[in-house]
Design brief:
This is Endoribonuclease L-PSP. The chain is of the alpha+beta class and 134 residues long. The protein has three helices and six strands.
């Protein structure tokens, strides 16, 4: 088995150890980022939907930065939302647009779910690594 090239952001290591997953992995010029939620340092959910989504993006951005990337390098996005029928517009129009970057936008798949371990929103991405990060 090959060794995984794992990227860790500052802090939150206990969360990854407790749940046994890597925050992100470099592979073949891409960065595959695990789903990020609006978790506080102790792993608990940030209160309030907009605040939780903002924190999920902050957590995502810290992983991207640790790999030498930014949101501009993201090529594919998957978001998971609890109760998207009542939350999609609130999340998409007011919070996501603050972080999305400029066109052209990455591909996006939005999935409605019934459970996210106490969270209401999760974002997972694939980013193209800049040449100097390879």
């Amino acid at each position: 088995m090959t060794t995984r090239n794992v990227v860790f952001p500052p802090g939150r290591h206990a969360l990854y150890e407790r749940h046994r997953y890597s925050p992100a992995i470099h592979s073949n010029g891409f960065l595959f980022v695990s789903g990020q939620v609006g978790s506080l340092e102790d792993g608990s959910p940030q209160q309030g939907l907009k605040e939780q989504v903002r924190l999920a993006f902050e957590n995502l951005n810290s992983i991207l930065a640790a790999a030498g990337c930014s949101f501009d390098d993201v090529v594919d996005v998957t978001v998971f939302m609890v109760d998207p029928a009542s939350t999609f517009e609130e999340i998409w129009s007011s919070v996501v647009s603050e972080h999305w970057g400029n066109a052209p936008y990455p591909t996006v798949t939005a999935v409605g779910v019934t459970w996210l371990s106490g969270f209401d929103f999760e974002i997972k991405v694939i980013a193209k690594l800049p040449q100097e990060s390879l």
